[in-house]
Amino acid sequence: MTFLLLLALATTTVPASGRARDCAPPRAGTRVHLEFARSTDLAGLTDWARTRLCVEYAVPLPLAGRQLPDHVSAVFDGADAIAAFELLLHTMNVKAEGRGQTRKIVATGDDPAVAVVAAPGASIRSPASTVGPAVIDKTTAEVLAQISRLDDTHYTIPRAALLKLMMAPMLGRARIVPEIRDGKPVGFRLFSVRPGSIPAAVGIMNGDVIISINGLPMNTPDNALKVYAQRNTTDAYRLSIEHLGKPVTIEVRIQ
Q1: pTM of the predicted structure, to 2 decimals
Q2: Position 130 pLDDT exceeds 70
Q3: Residue that finishes a domain, picked among 95, 114, 133
């Protein structure tokens, strides 16, 4: 009986408070302000998206209580608002599947709020032999073919390929967990970085910690959205990471 109850709970979705299909999504040239308080839960985020972005997200009940790790405030053009909102979902280890006005939320990892944090100095990098090769789809293959390696820490990518990469839900293929030290977030750690994946192609390894990107600390969703907003204007992404406990800077130049 308990097993059936848990099974039913896992497949139940949060009911929608209203349909999004008769709603007009934001248009290019309009401004959409994404502002959410710290600890806003996933159910609240998707309710906002239903009324402001006109997208209805089906949320499995066990995921509905996941919360934002920090306050978010960013303004986007209407044409980018849905993509920016779905990028924000990755901070809770969930992603959106599907297209159009009806989409589904699925988990990509454990709830970050209850993630296990390794003791200071402990190594939690997975041996390369335990992480199999990435499954390469058409979009990944097209982007990988356009990334050029100059040396171990310098790479180039055409802007068109970068934009294609950012519009695809590729973050869901790596597990992203906030890195907490002395009770405060200092960045995020990547797990399940597989050979042949996009992160591996630019020198990021399983277990690396992303500390900052273009000088913005990766300790809040707000800063992650600011990095995303730079994709049309920046000439490079400079990633400050910790690799095996040592600082490394990786530069991906945009052509």
Answers
A1: 0.55
A2: no
A3: 114
